């Protein structure tokens, strides 16, 4: 057994009934090796994902940032220069590569769920828990309006997209966390609770 595997085993034994290790980190059932956060733009996938990864002591990856890292252009540039279809292809490739990782929290982009290939990948990748961060459309739009740091090329058609996507988020995710009244740290805690059953 490697030193890090031994450390993991010891930490596992120290895990308390509340799911906290002695280090204060939360632990998930062994059947979960990656947590994927899905939901519409403004649902808090990135902010919650970072906090969740910290809680678990896992790596955090944001799918949009992964696309940008692999392609060398920003998301708005890809939309403007190559169009949505090309963006979706890049997105699917980036997701497939992230799904090969263990002990990782992945924040999807809001539209990734519309692609059948992504839904199949999420459903067929073992030990992958998908969590839908849910909020009413009005709340999501308010959050997007105040989050001026993120350029969202598709915000204009939000209502139609939301209607199309909501049933897909519900179908693919095994868990749903309503984020309306919760601060990001509380959402991360609620995700851990949901995953611990
Ligand atoms: C999109 C959402 C964005 C980003 C791209 C397209 C969408 O991600 O992937 O602008 O189709 O809803 P966020 O949900 O992180 O804003």
Features:
single chain, 197 residues, alpha/beta, Rossmann fold, 5-stranded parallel β-sheet, 8 helices, 5 strands, 12% strand, globular, binds shikimate-3-phosphate
Summarize this structure briefly.
The chain has 197 residues and is of the alpha/beta class. It has helices spanning 3-14, 45-56, 63-71, 75-98, 116-124, 137-146, 158-172, 184-196, and strands at residues 34-38, 59-62, 104-107, 128-134, 175-178.
Q: What layout of secondary structure does this protein have?
A:
Elements: H1 3-14, E1 34-38, H2 45-56, E2 59-62, H3 63-71, H4 75-98, E3 104-107, H5 116-124, E4 128-134, H6 137-146, H7 158-172, E5 175-178, H8 184-196
Parallel strand pairs: 1-3, 1-4, 2-3, 4-5
The protein binds shikimate-3-phosphate.
Shikimate-3-phosphate (S3P) is lined by residues 41, 45, 64, 75, 109-111, 150, 152-154.
Would you write up a description of this structure?
With 197 residues, the protein is an alpha/beta fold. The chain has one domain: Rossmann fold, CATH 3.40.50. It has eight helices and five strands. It has helices at 3-14, 45-56, 63-71, 75-98, 116-124, 137-146, 158-172, 184-196; strands spanning 34-38, 59-62, 104-107, 128-134, 175-178. Strands 2-3-1-4-5 form a five-stranded parallel beta sheet, sandwiched between helices. α2 packs across α8 (184-196) and α3 crosses α4 (75-98). The longest helix has 24 residues, at 75-98. The model has no long low-confidence stretch (mean pLDDT 92). Bound molecules: shikimate-3-phosphate. Residues 41, 45, 64, 75, 109-111, 150, 152-154 line the site of shikimate-3-phosphate.
